[in-house]
Amino acid sequence: MNLCSHPARVRYLPSIVGGLLIVFLLSFCVPAMAADDTATVSAAAVSAPQIDSGDTAWILTSTALVLFMTIPGLALFYGGLVRAENVLSVLMHCLVITAAVSVIWVLFGYSFSLDDSINPEEGVIALGSFIGGTGKIGLANVMGNVVGTIPELLVAAFQMTFAVITPALMVGAFAERMKFSAVFLFSIAWLIVVYFPICHMTWGGGLFATWGVLDLAGGIVVHVTAGFSALIACIMVGQRKGFPDKIQPPHSTVLTVVGTGMLWVGWFGFNAGSGLAANEAAVMTLVVTHLSASIATLVWMGIEWIKFGRPSVLGAATGSIAGLAAITPASGSVGPWGALAIGAASAILCFFFATTMKQALRYDDSLDVFGVHGVGGFLGTVLCGVFVAKSMGGMGLAEGMTIGSQVGVQFAAAAITAVYSIVASAILLLVIRVLVGLRVDDDVETRGLDLGEHGERGYIL
After folding, report:
1. Which of 135, 206, 262, 414 is spaced 20 to 30 Å from 316 by Cα?
2. pLDDT per residue over 128-160, tens digit each?
3. Position 116 pLDDT exceeds 80
């Protein structure tokens, strides 16, 4: 049949030919467009932050390890050091601080500490130099974000465990005599007034960060803040009855040593997890953490052996914690030789403050929070500036920095933190003294806080 002989078919022929031509052209264009789209998606996938399962698994583990440091680690370490009548009060402090701080951290603590949305430009001091923004209150704008190679929600959880243990450290300074209500109020207020600003200044892109301060895991943020605040707290609360000559010895050194072991192991997550990655740097951090604790244990033991004629288990345990506190700020910057030097120095200086200085000045830092954490954290922060140099086996100084300038920066940040912690804590304690009082009455202190404050006994005596 002749197609052209049918008028209707002739009329539709241009449309048919045009349609076929469009299909023919699209057969070339569509694959090209699809390829372009695929290339765009692939490029976006490559440029978008990727979650690394190994790093994520390690920080999940580290988060659990750091929480394990507070309950049961710190709780047992402190619990064994007090009288049997006060063991539950110490455990209660650690347990309730963990719960309260965790809630506050999610509500606004993470945002005030680590939200850098209002950080000032370099060289400018403004509100963002001292406190974080409000963009992540209630963990808003956190879900789905990636920090490095791990979910930001995990970063928030990991940092939460640091916020938990810091006020819990202070409990040891005023153990056996401070009201539970006062401890609770002070811990919460102190977290907001002292911890959040110092955390932001150091880790949140604030003032200390702009100075180039080195503090991997909290020499300043955790140990200096808690240690110096504990010092003023124990002075304001006052000495225990019978201090220093008639204080009863620890009721269970066994519990204290068990707690020491838990803290030592947990510290691997505390320090080696702070790099937020499972890599060679984390391995070095773990090694230097262990070395510092080990040499500090031996040096403290040696000092006691020479001075008293025999080493004590309690002394060895305390020495290990001093070494761990001191290496905390430097653990991401120094090598093995630096760790040995810092650990040995911490044992010597912390021993002096925990024994000679405390007796001479007669402040009743019950469980040596200032003598171990305050002094150890301050010392480690300053010595980090020395042993970070490659010539000392460390990771190397930042561009433009010398040992002298880095030590100066480290000392200035630690000193400012110490002074601020003392002044802010004193003001908070004065307010709390007016509101609820600081100290239990004499009868409760004699009978023990377990019965007097909680109506329970830790042991059937």
Report:
1. 414
2. 889 999 999 999 999 999 999 999 999 999 999
3. yes
Per-residue model confidence as pLDDT tens digits over 157-196: 999 999 999 999 999 999 999 999 999 999 999 999 999 9
Contacts of 342 (CB under 8 A, 6+ apart): 292, 323, 326, 327, 330, 334, 379, 380, 383, 384, 387
42 and 91 share a domain? no
Q: Are residues 33 and 154 in the same domain?
A: no
**Residue 179: closest CA among 126, 125, 237, 222:** 237
The answer on pLDDT for 29 being more than 50 is no
Question: Domain residues for 35?
Answer: 14-46
End-to-end CA distance of the chain: 115
CA distances 251 to 81, 85, 228, 256, 308, Å, are: 6, 9, 26, 10, 21
Domain count across the chain: 2
- Find the angle CA(315)-CA(319)-CA(324) to the nearest 5 degrees: 155
In the DSSP assignment, the letter for residue 178 is B
Residue 3 lies in a domain: no
Q: Give the model confidence (pLDDT) of 446-456 as tens digits.
A: 999 999 999 99
Residues 294 and 156 placed together within one structural domain of the fold? yes
